[in-house]
Amino acid sequence: MSRQRTTIFLVAAASIASMVSGANAAIGSTGQADRSSGTCGVLFDDFQYKSATDPDLADHGWNARSEMGGPGVPGTAWPASNVSFVSTGGQKVAQLRATTNGTAPGTTNAELRRTTMNLRNGTYATRVRYADKPATGPDGDHLNETAFAIGPTKFDYDPIYSELDFTEYLPNGGWGETGPINFQTSWHTFREDPWDARTAESRQARSLNGWHTYVTQVGNGHARYYIDGKLTADHTVDQDGNTILPRQDMSMNWNLWFIDLDAHQGTATSEYHQQIDWAYYAKNDTVSPAQADARVEKFRKHDTTYQDTLINTGSCENYQPPEH
Question: Which parts of the sequence belong to the GH16 domain (predicted)?
């Protein structure tokens, strides 16, 4: 959403690194989309892990955030223990946990993130369970439940800043909006202070409580967003006519955090949960929501819980902008 926020892209420097190298193209070039449809590999994860400290989680390129910082309320924590793996309906899923008692010291957020930035054009898909009500405690907090892809930013109006918010769901509203409301936002760039975001944005003023599948197709000049197979947004440029397609590599992430603490009721602690069933990415390939579901079912039929066949050579190589 094009709203003021504290945007600090926090990553572990030792574990976040782009896996790709330079190719000759102009900054902002998006013409490589779908050049080799279906041949550049896929990333799939069914999140069959024991805990946030499971060595396989790191080996497969994920971690649970533990650093302080934004977005959200200053001074709140992001403990890795707020990411767990639980069983629901006979299926193992990732679970994010966020808690608040209405004070910054008493507030925690959660984030599960990809530790390698090598995702750009293609199709992103994920099945996520949002909750309109807390698992325990009073309701009403201004909470953001999300799935997104993002790259780093180095300075205000960074010309290659890239972010695609597949879904930002506010069950109780926030940022001056009444909930429940969901946003898809495609970014060109932004300035932190005073806040100025150059984006394309769509919204749906309805509940997304429960399980839903979010698919985002990126390429050929468009970022198209789907919820449960229905097209809900089609973005091409920001308000100034600049492309919103990614201009650098990104990682795929989910987080659960408090926008502010103004709406908390009383002093009792509220606990909220968000769950992620699976994640799928097809590089440089336009995959329909039905095809994404079918591919995930095929993985599960063959007991494939994780696969990374992404290619970054030849026609599949991601253009890397020069240092700036």
Answer: 47-287
